[in-house]
Every structure is written in C-alpha cells, then in structure tokens.
Amino acid sequence: MNPERGRPAGYSAAVATDTATDTATEPLVSIERVHAAREVAGELGVDLLVVTPGSDLRYLCGYNAHAMERLTALAVPRRGEPFLVVPKLEAPMVDAGPAGALGLDVLAWEETDDPFTLLAGAAIGRLGSAPARVAVGARSWAEHALGVQAALPGARLELASSVVDRLRMVKSAAEVEELALAGAAIDRVHARMADWLRVGRTEAEVGADIAAAIRAEGHVGVDFTIVGSGPNGASPHHELSGRTVRAGDLVVVDIGGETATGYRSDCTRTYVVGGSADAEVAEWYGVLQEAQRAATAAVRPGVTAEAVDAAARTVIDDAGWGEHFIHRTGHGIGLDTHEAPYIVAGNDLPLVPGMAFSVEPGIYLAGRCGARIEDIVVCTEDGVRILNDGPRELVELPG
Ligand code: ZN
Ligand code: ZN
Q: What global pTM score does this model have?
C-alpha cells in the first residue's frame, strides 16, 4: 500500500489550525465533524455509526485510508468518545496523520485479533449497553458490514447516509473553495480541447491526451474521460472507443478528476469538429442551453432539488424534446463525484447555502448524436455561484 495515503497534501496544516474561523484559514477537517455526526446520530436515535475507508471516513476525520480486507473503522457511539479501529501496523501512520491530529482515540489490533470484537467491546463500553441501531457507511465493503453485524448480533444495521450525507451535503466555505479550484482546473483542460479533438483522431487518442492534461492542470487522479463522438454522444456514459472523429461530428466531452484534497471536478461541454451544426441541431442545442440556464437560475435557498430538475425539464419538454432528456438534471459533488443531493424528480429536499451539485441537462438522439452542458454550482445565501466557466454554446473546433 501507499504509505503517503495517511497524510494527504492539504490536510495537515488545516488540522493544526482548528480554532481559526475566517474563510482564509478555516480548516478543511476538524474534530467538529465527528462531534456533529455524534449529535445527528443521537437526534436520529442511531446508537453507533461505523464508517470504513472511503469518502465518509475522509470527510469525518481527514483519513484517506487505503481500503483493504483488514478492518479500519471510525466508530462514533451516540454517547462517549469516538474512536478509530486500525491495524496495528498502520497505527503509527494514523497517529502521524490528520486523524491523529484530531486527537481521536486509536485502538490498534494485532494480526491475530478479531477487530470486530474489539470495535463492539469498545462501543458497548462507551454506550453502557449493546447498541440496537448501528449505521454503517453506504459504500462500506460487505465483509466489513457483516463483520460488524456478527459482533453485535442484537443490532439492526442500517445505512449511515441519514447521518453523514446530512453533513456532507452542506459544504463549508473551505470546501467550496476546493471545489472552485477543481472547477477552474477542469476548465483549463476544456480550454485546450482544440489541441486534441481533431478530425481523424480516435476517441481513445483524444481521451489519453485529456487524461494527461487533467493531471497536468492540478488533479492527482483522473475519474473519467467521456469523449462521445457522433452517435456515441447519444450514450450519456459512453467513455472512449476506437471510433475516429469525422468532420461535422458533435462530440460530448465530460471530464473530471480528483484534486489533492480529495475534491472533485466534473464538467461537460459539447463541441462540433471540422464543421458547423446544421439548423436542426442548432435549434435543439439552443433549447438545451436555455434549459441549463433556467435550472441554474432556479438555484437559491428554499427551492427544492426537484424544482431545479423541473426548471430544466420544462424547457426541454415545452420545446418537444422531452423524450430525449433521459437522466436527472444533476448530482451533488464533493469528495465523491456523485453524492447527495440528487437533482431529480421526487427529491423534495430544500436547498440550503453550501449545497454543491451539477446542473447537466442533455438531449440524446439515439443512433445520431447527443449534447450535454454541465456546470458545478453552489447554492449561496441569495442565489447561485457557478464554479465552471468557458462557453456553453456549441464550440466549433477547426478540425
Ligand atoms: Zn459529468
Ligand atoms: Zn456530472
């Protein structure tokens, strides 16, 4: 495993200044997040929260742990001190990292110990009795969730999303700035698209150049490179193929990556290469642009997630293209590319300042072509902040 994983860049200084309050020095992670999780768990009647490696763990305590069969878990009982269960061989690394800086109790287990028994015993000790409701991270591995269940046979397991998503959905000012940096970095990649997206090149060749640029422009990892040329653009999650870009093709380019602090970028622009759009394409692309603008303009506190979806969908429906808009309008973004809140019909969650999500309507004509426009936006006190820039009209590249 990578020993650096316990000490992600950007965390140590922030953790060290946990009393700062202004935006410039506000810490990305502080012990307050664990305490907030404990408070929400208590409010919801959850006795014990168990979070294993992944974004929930990184969010709550700054530990970007390597997921593997050995159990690493943050346990947050509704009463008493939270604690981390870690393999003993990793304990020094954990102590030296962000989680150690938060002052969390670290319970280390030896190779022949049962870490689930250790976790259960420590939780019961803090609670004073066996927990009845135990919430495990939604993206925890099944072997870890079932291990917790076996060690606490009287407990009913449920997803920790009700607790953790409630916190993660609302970004702090420091988190919004991380998302803004990620957005600016991916915008710089789109701005260079003419260098790579040309007639005669394959989607795979273009995608390889984009991936290199995603790293060069300030990401530590590439999450996805969708280059959907011509008919492939009608498949929203098409990634790359050997298809060669032809003159006049519409090309959907949806790209994103992970920055050093774990925050994600995700931005789609649609290009027309070596030609210009015909009248019909120009007409429905105009509708799509208006839909994206309408949904973005709808974002403000108190408006529901589904109302933002409806704002985009109504424009496309009214213009007669509704059957070709085949997905929700957006998804939350933070330490995961897809997280709550989901901008979809049926989600009556009211937006609050700090919620960050994509606004990405698309129109897809099976067998022919497609288009999507995607920005990351943040709900502010009085409206919306858009974290991506660059032209949203069909961008004509010379070919
Ligand atoms: Zn996207
Ligand atoms: Zn997206």
A: 0.92
